[in-house]
Amino acid sequence: MKSLLKTLTETFAPSGYEDAVRQIIQKEVKPYADEIRVDAMGSLIVHKKPTVKAKNSRRIMLAAHMDEIGVIVSHVDKNGFVRFTSNGGVFGRYTLGARVRFMNGATGVIGFDKLESVNDAPPMSKMYIDMGAKSRKDCPVKVGDFGAFDRDYIEMGGRLVAKSMDDRSGVVVLIEALKSIKSTPNDLYFVFTTQEEVGVRGAGTAAYGIDPEIGIAIDVTGTGDTPASLKMAMELGKGPCVKVRDPGMLSDPRVVEWMASTAEKAKIPYQREVLLVGSTDARAIQVSRAGVMAGALSIPCRYIHSASEMVDYEDLVNSVKLLTALLSKPVSF
Ligand code: CO
Ligand code: ZN
Q1: What is the mean pLDDT of the chain?
Q2: Rounded CA separation 51/34 (Å)
Q3: Which ligand is nearest to the CA of 171?
Q4: Mind listing the pLDDT tens digit for each residue in 234-264?
Q5: Has 196 been annotated as catalytic?
Q6: What CATH number matches the domain at 2-68+163-327, 3.40.50.2300, 2.60.40.1470, 3.40.630.10, 3.30.200.20?
Q7: SS3 13
Q8: Ion ligand 2 — residues with CB under 5 Å?
Q9: Which one-letter DSSP state was computed for residue 68?
Q10: Mind listing the pLDDT tens digit for each residue in 180-212?
Q11: Are 322 and 266 in contact (CB under 8 A)?
Protein backbone atom coordinates (compact mmCIF):
# COMPACT_ATOMS: atom_id res chain seq x y z
CA MET A 1 0.00 0.00 0.00
CA LYS A 2 2.84 2.45 0.82
CA SER A 3 4.57 2.09 -2.54
CA LEU A 4 1.28 2.58 -4.39
CA LEU A 5 0.63 5.66 -2.25
CA LYS A 6 4.09 7.01 -3.12
CA THR A 7 3.43 6.50 -6.82
CA LEU A 8 -0.01 8.11 -6.60
CA THR A 9 1.12 11.16 -4.61
CA GLU A 10 4.10 11.79 -6.86
CA THR A 11 1.85 11.81 -9.93
CA PHE A 12 0.35 15.10 -11.14
CA ALA A 13 -3.40 15.43 -11.62
CA PRO A 14 -4.69 18.97 -11.12
CA SER A 15 -8.49 19.29 -11.27
CA GLY A 16 -9.61 18.86 -14.88
CA TYR A 17 -6.47 16.92 -15.88
CA GLU A 18 -6.76 13.66 -13.91
CA ASP A 19 -5.59 11.28 -16.67
CA ALA A 20 -2.22 10.28 -15.18
CA VAL A 21 -3.72 9.17 -11.87
CA ARG A 22 -6.65 7.50 -13.61
CA GLN A 23 -4.27 5.36 -15.66
CA ILE A 24 -2.49 4.10 -12.54
CA ILE A 25 -5.78 3.25 -10.81
CA GLN A 26 -7.17 1.56 -13.92
CA LYS A 27 -4.24 -0.84 -13.99
CA GLU A 28 -4.56 -1.62 -10.25
CA VAL A 29 -8.30 -2.33 -10.23
CA LYS A 30 -8.63 -4.22 -13.51
CA PRO A 31 -8.32 -7.75 -12.08
CA TYR A 32 -10.97 -7.01 -9.42
CA ALA A 33 -13.64 -5.32 -11.54
CA ASP A 34 -16.66 -6.71 -13.39
CA GLU A 35 -16.91 -3.57 -15.48
CA ILE A 36 -14.87 -0.39 -15.86
CA ARG A 37 -15.87 2.81 -17.61
CA VAL A 38 -14.90 6.44 -17.76
CA ASP A 39 -17.75 8.94 -17.84
CA ALA A 40 -17.90 12.22 -19.74
CA MET A 41 -16.46 14.18 -16.80
CA GLY A 42 -13.52 11.77 -16.61
CA SER A 43 -14.48 9.88 -13.46
CA LEU A 44 -13.40 6.23 -13.40
CA ILE A 45 -16.33 3.97 -12.51
CA VAL A 46 -15.41 0.48 -11.33
CA HIS A 47 -18.36 -1.85 -10.94
CA LYS A 48 -18.25 -4.93 -8.70
CA LYS A 49 -21.43 -6.96 -8.88
CA PRO A 50 -22.94 -8.92 -5.96
CA THR A 51 -21.31 -12.33 -5.49
CA VAL A 52 -23.94 -13.70 -3.09
CA LYS A 53 -27.73 -13.29 -2.89
CA ALA A 54 -29.21 -11.41 0.07
CA LYS A 55 -32.47 -9.60 0.89
CA ASN A 56 -30.89 -6.27 1.72
CA SER A 57 -28.64 -5.96 -1.30
CA ARG A 58 -27.94 -2.26 -1.81
CA ARG A 59 -26.53 -0.25 -4.68
CA ILE A 60 -23.66 1.59 -3.03
CA MET A 61 -21.41 4.28 -4.52
CA LEU A 62 -17.99 4.87 -3.00
CA ALA A 63 -16.10 7.96 -4.07
CA ALA A 64 -12.50 9.12 -3.74
CA HIS A 65 -11.30 12.05 -5.81
CA MET A 66 -8.32 11.81 -8.15
CA ASP A 67 -7.69 15.53 -8.56
CA GLU A 68 -5.46 17.83 -6.55
CA ILE A 69 -5.25 21.58 -6.07
CA GLY A 70 -2.97 23.59 -8.35
CA VAL A 71 -2.63 26.66 -10.53
CA ILE A 72 -3.68 27.89 -13.99
CA VAL A 73 -1.56 30.35 -15.98
CA SER A 74 -3.54 33.58 -16.48
CA HIS A 75 -0.86 35.88 -17.95
CA VAL A 76 2.77 35.80 -19.11
CA ASP A 77 4.59 39.16 -19.16
CA LYS A 78 7.22 40.23 -21.69
CA ASN A 79 10.02 39.10 -19.36
CA GLY A 80 8.52 35.60 -19.08
CA PHE A 81 7.08 35.89 -15.56
CA VAL A 82 3.84 33.98 -15.09
CA ARG A 83 0.78 35.23 -13.23
CA PHE A 84 -1.66 32.56 -12.16
CA THR A 85 -5.02 31.84 -10.65
CA SER A 86 -5.77 29.02 -8.23
CA ASN A 87 -7.35 25.73 -9.33
CA GLY A 88 -9.04 24.65 -6.08
CA GLY A 89 -8.28 25.81 -2.54
CA VAL A 90 -4.72 27.12 -2.79
CA PHE A 91 -3.69 29.11 0.31
CA GLY A 92 -1.23 31.98 -0.06
CA ARG A 93 0.53 31.02 3.17
CA TYR A 94 1.61 27.70 1.64
CA THR A 95 2.71 28.88 -1.79
CA LEU A 96 5.72 31.09 -1.09
CA GLY A 97 8.88 29.29 -2.19
CA ALA A 98 6.83 26.39 -3.56
CA ARG A 99 7.70 24.65 -6.80
CA VAL A 100 5.08 24.16 -9.46
CA ARG A 101 5.11 21.42 -12.08
CA PHE A 102 3.10 21.93 -15.26
CA MET A 103 1.46 19.21 -17.33
CA ASN A 104 4.20 19.51 -19.98
CA GLY A 105 6.83 18.79 -17.31
CA ALA A 106 8.12 22.38 -16.99
CA THR A 107 8.89 23.48 -13.44
CA GLY A 108 8.74 26.93 -11.87
CA VAL A 109 9.20 28.57 -8.48
CA ILE A 110 6.79 30.99 -6.85
CA GLY A 111 8.04 34.50 -6.13
CA PHE A 112 6.23 37.67 -5.06
CA ASP A 113 6.11 41.43 -5.65
CA LYS A 114 7.66 43.81 -3.12
CA LEU A 115 5.74 43.59 0.15
CA GLU A 116 4.05 46.47 1.99
CA SER A 117 4.80 44.65 5.24
CA VAL A 118 7.46 41.94 5.37
CA ASN A 119 5.51 39.89 7.91
CA ASP A 120 2.33 39.43 5.85
CA ALA A 121 1.78 36.71 3.26
CA PRO A 122 1.01 38.49 -0.04
CA PRO A 123 -2.27 37.84 -1.90
CA MET A 124 -2.09 35.57 -4.94
CA SER A 125 -2.44 38.59 -7.24
CA LYS A 126 0.99 39.71 -6.00
CA MET A 127 2.64 36.34 -6.65
CA TYR A 128 4.13 35.05 -9.86
CA ILE A 129 5.86 31.93 -11.14
CA ASP A 130 9.45 32.23 -12.31
CA MET A 131 9.95 29.60 -15.01
CA GLY A 132 13.62 30.46 -15.52
CA ALA A 133 12.63 32.24 -18.74
CA LYS A 134 14.09 35.52 -20.01
CA SER A 135 11.17 36.50 -22.24
CA ARG A 136 7.60 35.55 -23.09
CA LYS A 137 8.87 33.68 -26.15
CA ASP A 138 11.26 31.76 -23.96
CA CYS A 139 8.61 30.81 -21.36
CA PRO A 140 7.70 27.09 -21.49
CA VAL A 141 4.06 27.65 -20.45
CA LYS A 142 1.19 29.66 -21.92
CA VAL A 143 -2.13 31.07 -20.74
CA GLY A 144 -4.44 28.21 -19.80
CA ASP A 145 -1.73 25.72 -18.82
CA PHE A 146 -2.34 23.75 -15.61
CA GLY A 147 0.18 22.99 -12.88
CA ALA A 148 0.33 21.38 -9.43
CA PHE A 149 2.71 21.63 -6.48
CA ASP A 150 5.85 19.55 -6.66
CA ARG A 151 7.01 17.62 -3.56
CA ASP A 152 8.38 14.15 -2.79
CA TYR A 153 6.66 11.51 -0.68
CA ILE A 154 8.46 10.75 2.61
CA GLU A 155 7.90 8.45 5.59
CA MET A 156 8.49 9.72 9.13
CA GLY A 157 8.02 6.55 11.14
CA GLY A 158 4.31 5.77 10.96
CA ARG A 159 3.51 9.22 9.60
CA LEU A 160 3.39 9.56 5.83
CA VAL A 161 3.90 12.96 4.23
CA ALA A 162 3.28 14.05 0.63
CA LYS A 163 1.49 16.51 -1.55
CA SER A 164 -2.03 15.39 -2.57
CA MET A 165 -2.61 13.02 0.37
CA ASP A 166 -5.90 14.86 -0.26
CA ASP A 167 -7.12 12.65 -1.75
CA ARG A 168 -4.65 10.00 -2.96
CA SER A 169 -4.77 8.49 0.55
CA GLY A 170 -8.51 8.04 -0.04
CA VAL A 171 -7.81 6.64 -3.50
CA VAL A 172 -5.39 4.06 -2.10
CA VAL A 173 -7.86 3.05 0.64
CA LEU A 174 -10.59 2.57 -1.95
CA ILE A 175 -8.33 0.47 -4.20
CA GLU A 176 -7.21 -1.72 -1.26
CA ALA A 177 -10.80 -2.19 -0.08
CA LEU A 178 -11.82 -3.36 -3.56
CA LYS A 179 -8.93 -5.83 -3.54
CA SER A 180 -9.77 -7.19 -0.09
CA ILE A 181 -13.50 -7.83 -0.54
CA LYS A 182 -13.88 -11.59 -0.91
CA SER A 183 -17.65 -11.68 -1.33
CA THR A 184 -20.50 -9.17 -1.16
CA PRO A 185 -24.29 -9.17 -1.40
CA ASN A 186 -24.16 -5.52 -2.54
CA ASP A 187 -23.93 -3.91 -5.96
CA LEU A 188 -20.78 -1.83 -5.58
CA TYR A 189 -19.55 1.13 -7.59
CA PHE A 190 -16.02 2.29 -6.75
CA VAL A 191 -15.77 5.73 -8.28
CA PHE A 192 -12.58 7.73 -8.66
CA THR A 193 -13.92 11.20 -9.24
CA THR A 194 -12.72 14.35 -11.00
CA GLN A 195 -12.87 18.04 -10.11
CA GLU A 196 -13.64 17.65 -6.39
CA GLU A 197 -11.36 20.52 -5.46
CA VAL A 198 -13.23 22.98 -7.67
CA GLY A 199 -16.67 22.15 -6.22
CA VAL A 200 -17.38 18.38 -6.07
CA ARG A 201 -18.29 18.35 -9.77
CA GLY A 202 -17.35 14.84 -10.95
CA ALA A 203 -19.04 13.09 -8.03
CA GLY A 204 -22.36 14.75 -8.79
CA THR A 205 -22.51 13.63 -12.40
CA ALA A 206 -21.22 10.13 -11.54
CA ALA A 207 -23.93 9.79 -8.87
CA TYR A 208 -26.58 10.86 -11.36
CA GLY A 209 -25.43 8.13 -13.74
CA ILE A 210 -25.18 5.40 -11.10
CA ASP A 211 -28.30 6.35 -9.12
CA PRO A 212 -27.05 4.77 -5.86
CA GLU A 213 -29.13 4.10 -2.74
CA ILE A 214 -26.18 4.78 -0.43
CA GLY A 215 -23.13 6.97 -1.05
CA ILE A 216 -19.89 7.19 0.89
CA ALA A 217 -17.00 9.53 0.17
CA ILE A 218 -13.50 8.57 1.25
CA ASP A 219 -11.50 11.73 1.81
CA VAL A 220 -9.24 13.44 4.32
CA THR A 221 -10.45 15.48 7.29
CA GLY A 222 -8.73 18.14 9.39
CA THR A 223 -7.55 17.37 12.93
CA GLY A 224 -7.49 19.22 16.23
CA ASP A 225 -4.26 17.67 17.49
CA THR A 226 -1.62 20.28 16.67
CA PRO A 227 -0.55 23.34 18.75
CA ALA A 228 -3.34 25.94 18.99
CA SER A 229 -5.39 24.19 16.29
CA LEU A 230 -9.15 24.51 15.84
CA LYS A 231 -10.94 22.68 18.68
CA MET A 232 -11.91 19.51 16.85
CA ALA A 233 -12.04 15.92 18.12
CA MET A 234 -10.17 14.21 15.27
CA GLU A 235 -6.59 13.05 15.85
CA LEU A 236 -3.94 11.33 13.74
CA GLY A 237 -3.53 7.63 14.52
CA LYS A 238 -6.85 7.14 16.33
CA GLY A 239 -8.59 5.46 13.41
CA PRO A 240 -10.82 6.42 10.48
CA CYS A 241 -13.44 9.10 11.14
CA VAL A 242 -17.16 8.61 10.66
CA LYS A 243 -18.40 11.94 9.39
CA VAL A 244 -21.37 13.39 11.22
CA ARG A 245 -21.20 16.90 9.82
CA ASP A 246 -19.14 19.31 7.76
CA PRO A 247 -20.11 22.76 6.47
CA GLY A 248 -21.37 21.17 3.22
CA MET A 249 -23.48 18.31 4.54
CA LEU A 250 -25.17 16.51 7.39
CA SER A 251 -24.50 12.79 7.09
CA ASP A 252 -27.54 10.52 7.00
CA PRO A 253 -27.98 9.27 10.60
CA ARG A 254 -28.60 5.71 9.33
CA VAL A 255 -25.25 5.76 7.53
CA VAL A 256 -23.47 7.15 10.60
CA GLU A 257 -25.01 4.43 12.79
CA TRP A 258 -24.16 1.72 10.24
CA MET A 259 -20.53 2.82 10.03
CA ALA A 260 -20.06 3.24 13.80
CA SER A 261 -21.71 -0.04 14.78
CA THR A 262 -19.80 -1.95 12.09
CA ALA A 263 -16.52 -0.54 13.44
CA GLU A 264 -17.49 -1.50 17.00
CA LYS A 265 -18.50 -5.04 16.05
CA ALA A 266 -15.28 -5.57 14.09
CA LYS A 267 -13.20 -3.92 16.86
CA ILE A 268 -11.78 -1.35 14.45
CA PRO A 269 -10.81 1.94 16.14
CA TYR A 270 -12.83 4.89 14.80
CA GLN A 271 -13.58 8.51 15.61
CA ARG A 272 -16.66 10.66 15.25
CA GLU A 273 -16.12 13.64 12.97
CA VAL A 274 -17.60 17.09 13.18
CA LEU A 275 -15.53 19.09 10.70
CA LEU A 276 -15.57 22.89 10.97
CA VAL A 277 -14.06 23.70 7.54
CA GLY A 278 -14.30 22.00 4.13
CA SER A 279 -16.51 19.33 2.55
CA THR A 280 -16.34 16.26 0.31
CA ASP A 281 -17.87 14.43 -2.67
CA ALA A 282 -20.50 13.05 -0.27
CA ARG A 283 -22.20 16.43 -0.41
CA ALA A 284 -22.75 16.15 -4.17
CA ILE A 285 -23.85 12.51 -3.96
CA GLN A 286 -26.36 13.23 -1.18
CA VAL A 287 -28.26 15.84 -3.18
CA SER A 288 -28.13 14.13 -6.59
CA ARG A 289 -31.41 13.08 -8.28
CA ALA A 290 -34.09 12.60 -5.60
CA GLY A 291 -31.50 12.37 -2.82
CA VAL A 292 -29.17 9.63 -1.57
CA MET A 293 -28.42 8.31 1.93
CA ALA A 294 -24.85 9.58 2.28
CA GLY A 295 -21.95 9.71 4.67
CA ALA A 296 -18.18 9.77 4.62
CA LEU A 297 -15.25 7.80 5.90
CA SER A 298 -12.54 10.34 6.58
CA ILE A 299 -8.81 9.94 6.98
CA PRO A 300 -7.32 12.29 9.60
CA CYS A 301 -4.81 14.58 7.92
CA ARG A 302 -2.67 17.51 9.07
CA TYR A 303 -1.69 20.51 6.90
CA ILE A 304 -4.42 19.90 4.30
CA HIS A 305 -3.84 21.77 1.03
CA SER A 306 -0.14 22.31 1.80
CA ALA A 307 2.54 20.43 -0.17
CA SER A 308 3.26 18.39 2.99
CA GLU A 309 -0.01 16.77 3.99
CA MET A 310 0.46 14.23 6.80
CA VAL A 311 -1.50 11.03 7.49
CA ASP A 312 -0.90 8.04 9.76
CA TYR A 313 -0.29 4.64 8.21
CA GLU A 314 -2.43 2.77 10.77
CA ASP A 315 -5.38 5.02 9.95
CA LEU A 316 -5.12 3.90 6.33
CA VAL A 317 -4.97 0.23 7.34
CA ASN A 318 -8.01 0.63 9.61
CA SER A 319 -9.89 2.58 6.93
CA VAL A 320 -9.44 -0.34 4.53
CA LYS A 321 -10.68 -2.74 7.25
CA LEU A 322 -13.74 -0.65 8.00
CA LEU A 323 -14.71 -0.22 4.34
CA THR A 324 -14.23 -3.94 3.72
CA ALA A 325 -16.42 -4.81 6.72
CA LEU A 326 -19.13 -2.36 5.62
CA LEU A 327 -19.32 -3.58 2.04
CA SER A 328 -19.03 -7.35 2.61
CA LYS A 329 -22.31 -7.78 4.54
CA PRO A 330 -25.97 -6.98 3.85
CA VAL A 331 -26.96 -3.49 4.99
CA SER A 332 -29.55 -3.58 7.78
CA PHE A 333 -31.57 -0.50 6.80
CO1 CO B 1 -9.02 19.07 -0.78
ZN1 ZN C 1 -10.19 16.00 -0.74
Answers
A1: 96
A2: 11
A3: 2
A4: 999 999 999 999 999 999 999 999 999 999 9
A5: yes
A6: 3.40.630.10
A7: coil
A8: 166-167, 219
A9: B
A10: 999 999 999 999 999 999 999 999 999 999 999
A11: yes
